[in-house]
Structure formats: structure tokens, C-alpha cells
Amino acid sequence: MKRALVPVIAVVLLLGIMAALMLGPMRDDSATVDETSFLSAGYSYMQGYKFYFDPENPPLSQLLVAIPSSFMNVTLSEQAKALLDRRAGYSWTVPWFGEPQPVQTLFPQGRDSWYFWPKPEAQIFGQMLVYGGGNDGDAMMWWGRCLQVLVTLGIGVLIFFWVRRAVANYLAALLAVALWVFNPNALAYGHLITTDIDGALGTTAAIMLFAIYLERPGLGQAALCGAALGMALTMKFNALALGPMFVVMALVSWRTLKIAGAKLWKQGLVLAGAAWLVILLAYAFAWAPAPPISSQQAGLLGVPGWFQALRPVLIPCDFFKGIALAISHSRIGHEAYLMGQWSHSGWRTYFPIAFFLKSPLAFFLVTIAGATLAVARWKSLPSLATAPWIAAAVYFGLAITSNVNIGVRHLLTVFSLVCVGVGCVYAKLDKTWAKRALLGLAAWQAVAAICAYPLYLQFMSEAVGGARNGYKYLLDSNYDWGQDAKRLKEFLDELGIKHIYLDYFGTQFSIEYLKIPNTRVNAEQARQITRGTLVVSASQLMRPEWSWLREQKQPVDCVGYTLFVYQFP
């Protein structure tokens, strides 16, 4: 066997292990809160209902996961058809900026307006499509998740080639891949139907290609980088962070950037043009500008001033609508939980704390060691080896400023960049003990990841007692995202429990699909229970209105660490 094939085989084996570790969660995790919405949005786009249901997210990743469903015998209930055709909907809706309001107030002429944002309709349509229309919901979820696994493995391949090109060291590249393969966050979100892992792939690829461009500027490389930028922006709008990252990376490389001013402008235009072309292709033939809007309605909807002023040239209009909605979401904030506290505007400390809590202790130590060594050896590292640290720092800094503190999944790009950065640093170490220490930490991380199988979404650092204590620190997509309905079904069947009272943070349609006999209750209604079994999701239990239950009763069991079971009397 040729020696050059050995690292390739090793990478394939590592990625095979990663795929195997995700198979169990793919099968056993119920649909999380947003998955049915993303899958159904992609399906509707493929059926010709362009960019209606989920304008807050770009379409590429949603189209990807909907490919298998388009080949299935999918049927729509009459209710689902009515939602899709805009013949039915909720009495309230969400403006571009502001609190939910009655549809009649915002759209007196009806919901056919292009400016209408059908957020509640999108959620219920997704649940109906997957679990309420006689379709094989499990098969739709499985095949959509399979494509996400391929994206996750693609990031591993990208990490390998980046490190190999930067430092020409196969062992360093394999170490970087291993840090990704055995990262519980990659395993948790890498098999779910969301835009997060796709965004991480697109953003990581764009950063790598821009770093290569800075090393060897040229029209071809500028076009390639621009195409990657366009791909990233049509996967997740978090890729807007690439703008500041590119600027900082260029400034750091300015002294060594060997390119004349005229050529720089020309190549910059090629880069931007390639990105725009990819965006146009993603929003295929929906290239008309947004329709006019009165200043009165724009004020009611919270349509930003820049959108109103530039409306005729914002093409494709759905792309810029999505950017406006994403920016508005970041400004408004989102209800979030951190270590016993609830907030709608978030905390500046949220993402640093979440990064620590959701990382294996070994990976956190590797990150600190890698960053420290990179700074100490900065001048000896090639630009491709310093680029991941620069980009990760900028991305992390931007994340800290956001008011949307709902999940470490928004830092997946940082995790991939850290893997690259640590691999590059490892190649430049001249002390055997230091290399062995990094390899030892990677082995420790691998053990932690394997021991956490298959409950990766619930993973929490060993420093706080692991997943069992996770609900005390983080909730929502960090921990309890509605993924344990199937495990609840198995639990109830095993104990022969025929009925439960339930407050579930997840897709109720999946509860009905699994035929779990339940009565939904809120905290106040649960006070009236005198006999029976009560199940409360962690994301509900930690709310203030449930404090009486936490203080007065102890759970008799806990399903998947996220569903607390109480017995009355």
C-alpha cells in the first residue's frame, strides 16, 4: 500500500466512526422544534411555492434536506393545502420588527402581500406535513437527516485539506479531523434538519478560500472565494459575519499582500460578482424587486429604512427580506435561559459560558492551549494557519453582541475553526511532551464523546456533572429541544402507563403520531392533579410558573435527562 494512501484511509475511518455515532440519534431522536418547519419549507419550495414559509432563513439547506421527500409519495391534508395556498391562517402574525399583531391590523387587504411573514403558519404546516397528513414522518425525517450527516462529514474533509495545505503534516490534519469527529456538538447538530451545520460548512469553506486568496491573489481564486461566499449566504444568514472576518483577515495580511490597487479592485468586483451570481441561482428566477409599500404600512411592519430606500435594486428581493428579518431578530432578542435566569435580551457572557458548558473539558483545554500557542508562535505560522484563529475570534466577538442567545449551535463555525487552528499549531510544536499532551487531550475528548452516545444534544461538560445536571445551566436547543418523545413512548410502554399529563417543549404532532395518550396541562392546571402521571420537559420545568413543582415534589424518573416524570399522589 502506498504511504500516501494511509492518511486518506485514516480520514475515511474517522469519518465512518462519526457517521456511526450519529446513526443512533438519527433514528431515536424525535423531531426537534424547528426540524419539521425547515423540511416542509424546502418541500414547498420544490413544489413551486417559492420562499413563502421561511423567509428568515435562506433556501439552500432547506432545499437540500427536502430532496428525499420530493421522491416520496407525500400527501397533504386539506388543512395543510389551505395553509400552503394562503386560504387559511392564524388571526395574528409577526411583523418584520416588533411584537405579534392581528393580521387585519397589519394587512387589511389580506395576507397575499409579499411583506406578509407566515411564521405561525410555517410551523403548523411543517407539523402537518410530517406528522399529520398520513405520511411516513419517520422516513421523511430519516432521509432528510442523512443528507445533513453528509454535510457534517464534508466539514471533516474540509478540515483535513485545510490543515494539510497549511502545514503539510498528515498527523496534524488527522488530529484536527479527530477533534471534529468526536465533538459532541458536531454529533448533536450534525444529524438534525436545521440550517446550522450547513452554515458552518459554507462559512468554513469561504474562510479557507479567502485565506488562500490572500496568499496567492488572482481572478480565479477571487471567483472561487466569491462562489463560496454566495453558497454560505444562501445556507445561513449568520454568514454575514464573513464580511467583518474578511476585512480583519485582509488587514492582518495587508503588508504581505502582493497586489496592485487596480488589480485589487478588479478582483474584489469578481469576488462580489461570483457571490451575487450564486445567490441569484439559489433564488432561481425570483428576481423581481419587492413591490412598493406605503410609508404607513412600512412603519406598522417595521420594514427597515434601508430596505425601503433601496427596494428597487435589492435583487433577489427574498434574499434581502431574509437579511432584514434576521437583523431584526437579532435586535429584538429571543427568550433565553442561563443558569437559572431568564432574559429576552440575552447576556454578553452567554456564548463564552455556553462554549465552556457544551464542550468536553478536554476540547476546552485544547482550545485554550491552541490559542495560547498560536499567539506565542504567530510569526512562525503561515497565514493559512493563523486565519482560523482570526476568523474564530471575530465570529465569537460578533456572537457576543447578539441578543439572540438560544443555542451553542450558532457557534458551530467556531468549533470547526478551532479544530483547524489546533491542528496547525500541533504541526509547529517542537517539544515531544507538548505534542503528546495535545494527543492525550484529543483521546480524552474521544472517550467523553463515545460515553455520551446517543444523547449528544443533552451533552454537558464534565466540569458541571455532565448531562444529568445540564438543565440547571442551559435549555432550549442546547439541551431540551423536544428530541425525547420516542424515548418517552418506550418508557411508558415498558411501565404500562396508559395516560399522562404533559407539558412538552416540542412538536405536539409528534406526540400524537407516536400515539402517546396525553392531556396537555400548564403549570396552573397541573396544580389540580390529584392522581396520575405528570411529565414536564426541562425547558418548561425551569420556568418561574413551575417553581411550585420543583419545590414541592421530586421526580420519580427522568427520560433522556429532559423529561421529568412525577407521580400523584
Describe the overall structure.
This protein has 569 residues and is mainly alpha-helical. Among the domains are: 5-145, no CATH class; 478-568. Helices cover 58% and strands 6% of the residues. It contains 26 helices and 9 strands. A 5-stranded mixed β-sheet has the order 6-5-7-9-8. Helix 8 packs parallel to helix 21 (432-452) and helix 18 packs across helix 20. The chain is globular and about 75 Å long. The model has no long low-confidence stretch (mean pLDDT 95).
For this entry, give a set of tags.
mainly alpha, 569 residues, globular, 26 helices, two-stranded antiparallel ribbon, 5-stranded mixed beta sheet, 9 strands, single chain
- Helical fraction: 55-70%
Q: Using DSSP, what is the number of strands?
A: 9
Task: Name the poorly predicted regions.
Answer: none
Q: Give the overall average pLDDT.
A: 95
Brief description of this entry?
The protein is 58% helix and 6% strand. With 569 residues, it is mainly α. α1 (5-28) packs parallel to α8 and α11 (219-233) packs parallel to α13.
Layout of strands and helices, then pairs:
Elements: H1 5-28, H2 35-46, H3 60-70, H4 78-84, E1 92-93, E2 101-102, H5 103-106, H6 119-132, H7 137-167, H8 170-181, H9 184-189, H10 196-215, H11 219-233, H12 242-252, H13 261-282, H14 295-301, H15 305-310, H16 317-332, E3 336-338, E4 341-343, H17 350-357, H18 361-376, H19 383-401, H20 412-427, H21 432-452, H22 485-495, E5 500-503, H23 508-513, E6 518-520, H24 523-526, E7 532-537, H25 538-541, H26 547-552, E8 557-559, E9 563-568
Parallel strand pairs: 5-6, 5-7
Antiparallel strand pairs: 1-2, 3-4, 7-9, 8-9
